[in-house]
Amino acid sequence: MKTLIVCAAVLVVAAGVAVVSSIRGVAAAGESNVAGVRRLDGSAITGAQIDATVTSLLAAGKVTGLGLAILEDGKIAYLKAYGIRDKEKNLALTTDSVMSAASFTKVAFAYLVMKLVEDGTLNLDRPMFEYLPKPLPEYENYKDLAGDPRYKKITARMLLSHTSGLPNWRRFSDDEKKLRIYFEPGARFSYSGEGIDLLQLEVETITKKGLKELMAARVFAPLGMGRTSMTWEPQFEDDHANGYDEHGNSLGPQRRPSADAAGSMKTTVADFAKFMQAVMNGTGLRRETRELMLSPQARISSVHEFPPLKTETTHANDGIRLSYGLAWGLYWSPYGKAFFKEGSDDGWRNYTVCFDEKRMGIVIMTSSSNGEGIYEELLEKLQRNTFTPVEWEQFVPYNAAGK
């Protein structure tokens, strides 16, 4: 991999958007017309064209800040930050600015789980309860399941593929805000943060270690992700982004004090690009383990990804064979299999998708609740990707009528 050196200089472009860049080596301050990257269809896009596209969309979509990485031939070919990280102080976002990963956390956690599968610590198909020293309902967070023996059928494979029957979050599932199993485990896809947290309990029980320690030792350090942690760290204070709501109001940074496998990870676009490069190349995993992680576990026929538990179905995504692997969404295009993940939290919107056979990918991290409104146009213009199931993922374009 070519060494990427982030240029610390800041350029304020005509649109008023600050840019900090690094592309295929050293990019001098203001040099946005350096060599570009190839897109899926073989066409090229220059750095100047990327800058023009992104800065225009940030303004049109009212997106505060955006970190962008583009992967080509399994390497980070383009890395740049746009916009600002703190409106009040007028500080530019950088590629080292710590941002909230939101549900990007889930795929990083899945990478750890697959390493545990490789070394025989965890079996994907062994019932989860068998790893615990006491019945699951005797744990405070799972006491609501005392009358439902179906919890004994739940496995790590089901938890990673979101087929466990658990809701996304109990607080949104019913008026009583109790945890329930809504359908037979393994029967169908329904996105579940609760399921990922249950797998965290299993992993910490088996290893007798906390998730923060595990992720640092087995994922972040080996992959060189020096500004990534499952919790907020004092070192992040020097360069971090605030999240901003739909109206541009600051929500501040997320200073989470405890590790949550479903969404607590703090990272930078530079670090997460390293993670995506590792997944693309199978770094740290045997080939068969990586293939298993990115193989379909459940076909998806739901009309939308959210809210989960809805039973309405559609054939609209049959043509792309929309599926879920182990923590990753999957679909097929004329360019082969793609694996993707979104991350959403108040003030934060993130998206990544990689095309396996082409060895091309993109990482988009935004510090704005408006971020997903520009995904579709970014993917089309920067990647020539018109295949992402934006309707299923409910990415409403910034210029959609009636928004």
What this model shows, in words?
- The chain has a domain at 109-211.
- It contains ten helices and 17 strands.
- Helix 1 packs antiparallel against helix 9 (375-383).
- With 403 residues, it is α+β, with helices and mostly antiparallel strands.
- It has helices at residues 47-61, 104-118, 156-160, 170-173, 193-207, 211-220, 269-281, 287-293, 375-383, 390-393, and strands spanning 11-12, 18-22, 37-38, 44-45, 65-72, 75-86, 91-92, 99-100, 243-244, 250-252, 266-267, 298-299, 323-324, 329-333, 336-345, 348-355, 360-366.
- A hairpin with a 5-residue loop joins strand 9 and strand 10 (250-252).
- Strands 1, 2, 5, 6, 7, 12, 13, 14, 15, 16 and 17 form an eleven-stranded antiparallel β-sheet that branches. The chain has a two-stranded antiparallel ribbon with strand order 3-4. A two-stranded antiparallel sheet has the order 8-11.
Entry summary:
This protein has helices spanning 47-61, 104-118, 156-160, 170-173, 193-207, 211-220, 269-281, 287-293, 375-383, 390-393, and strands at residues 11-12, 18-22, 37-38, 44-45, 65-72, 75-86, 91-92, 99-100, 243-244, 250-252, 266-267, 298-299, 323-324, 329-333, 336-345, 348-355, 360-366. By secondary structure, the chain is of the alpha+beta class. Mean pLDDT is 92; it is low at 1-17 and 19-33.
Mean pLDDT level:
92
Beta-strand content:
15-25%
Order of helices and strands: EEEEHEEEEHHHHHEEEHHEEEEEEHH
First-to-last CA distance: 42 Å
**Helical residue percent band:** 10-25%
Shape call: globular
What's the Cα radius of gyration? 21 Å
Q: Total helix count?
A: 10
Main sheet: strands, sense, barrel: 11 strands, antiparallel
DSSP, total strands: 17
Decide which structural class fits the backbone.
Answer: alpha+beta
Low-confidence stretches: 1-17, 19-33
